[in-house]
Amino acid sequence: MINKDGQKPQEMIAHFWKTLDLRKKTTLVAITMSTLPVLLIGSVSYYFANRSITQRITEEQAAQTFDMSDKVKRSLEERYVDIKQMANLSIFADPRLRKIATPEEKDRTLQQIMEASEGLYNWTLDKKQLLA
């Protein structure tokens, strides 16, 4: 790259350096020598701290994800067992008993299941749909 005077950047820097007196050169060198280590140490410290924090956050998120996945899995397994047990109740599984049982008896059975579950199941469907 060449500037408007036809000089290369290296030539411009060399010319600038030659025009400075000893006092300015000493000041520039002192400033450079004192700031470079600070910048270097700060940059390296930032890099390693950032990497460490990122790794810790990633590990924590992975642990939380595993915990949540495990809780959901256990909950679904428990609900599946509950569904199988409800489906096997004679009042619902035996066609003869299902026809004989009154809606009140079926409702009472469902109420007992709800009470035993301590609020786990909140039945929002119309009772007529459940008892049909």
Description:
The chain has 132 residues and is an all-alpha fold. It folds into 2 domains: 1-71, no CATH class; 89-132, no CATH class. Helices cover 80% and strands 0% of the residues. The longest helix is centred in the middle third of the chain and has 66 residues, at 22-87. The radius of gyration is 39 Å and the shape is rod-shaped. The mean pLDDT is 85.
Please sum up the structure shown.
This protein is mainly α.
- Order of helical and strand elements: HHHHHH
Report the helical percentage.
over 70%
- End-to-end separation: 87 Å
Structural class: mainly alpha
The portion of residues forming beta strands comes to under 5%
> What's the total count of β strands?
0
Roughly how many Å is the radius of gyration?
Answer: 39 Å
Indicate the mean pLDDT: 85
Contiguous low-pLDDT stretches (5 residues minimum) are none
- C-alpha geometry: rod-shaped
How would a crystallographer describe the biggest sheet?
none
Q: How many domains comprise the coordinates? A: 2
- Annotation field: number of helices: 6
Produce the secondary structure layout.
Layout: H1 9-19, H2 22-87, H3 90-93, H4 95-100, H5 103-116, H6 127-131
